[in-house]
Amino acid sequence: MITDKINKLTLPATILIASIVLGGFFYASQVNKQHSIERQQEIKIETEKQDQLAKELKEQQAKEEAEQALNTCITDAEESYHSQWDKECKTLGELTSKCIDVNELSYDEYLKKYGLTSEEYVRQRSLAPTDPNDPASVRFSATLDYIFKRPSECSCRLPISTADRFSESLEKDKTECFKRYPQK
């Protein structure tokens, strides 16, 4: 009798335990699937963000390269203009030998040719460095003067037709730069 009661209770208990175990496995697998789907969506969103950032970076780099190319082209056009002007002044005999050297030599080459130091150059040009006792400050002042002020002092007045021709050539070259490297 007790065995019969145990046998009668065993089957429902086994079914109940099996149902709980199977239900737990089913629930766990569904939770796992949901987490997997969420991870895939997060990865997809992150990938899209990275792709967008890469695209924006590439566009920014292309824009900067185009700007740099345009600036280089315009600088080359201006240097060509100044070079033509200087050559014409030189051809006309309008420049002193020192001015010819200013237009053709670097600062260090100029100092070497004339046997000058930065301090002597500063005295000759009556420059006022920020700190006259600091050699770096003296050299900096002298270099800035040589690069930015001296060339404008070493020029000449050209005939109007020649000056106009050079100006037209400069404008044409700049226009060509803008056509070659359009900015967005």
Structure, explained:
The structure is a single chain. This protein has helices at 2-91, 97-104, 107-114, 118-125, 135-153, 160-180. The chain is an all-alpha fold and 184 residues long. It has one domain. Helix 1 packs antiparallel against helix 6 (160-180) and helix 4 (118-125) crosses helix 5. It is elongated and about 135 Å long. The chain starts with a helix and ends with a helix.
Summary tags:
mainly alpha; 184 residues; 6 helices
Write the layout of secondary structure elements.
Layout: H1 2-91, H2 97-104, H3 107-114, H4 118-125, H5 135-153, H6 160-180
Helix pairs in contact: 1-6, 4-5
Structure at a glance:
The chain has one domain (49-180).
Number of helices: 6
Q: Which structural class should the secondary elements be placed in?
A: mainly alpha
Secondary-structure element order, N to C: HHHHHH
* Proportion of residues in extended strands: under 5%
Strand tally is: 0
Indicate the overall shape. elongated
Helix content: over 70%
Uncertain ranges: none
Q: End-to-end span in angstroms?
A: 95 Å
Q: Roughly what is the average pLDDT, rounded to an integer?
A: 88
The major beta sheet can be summarized as: none
Number of domains: 1
State Rg: 40 Å
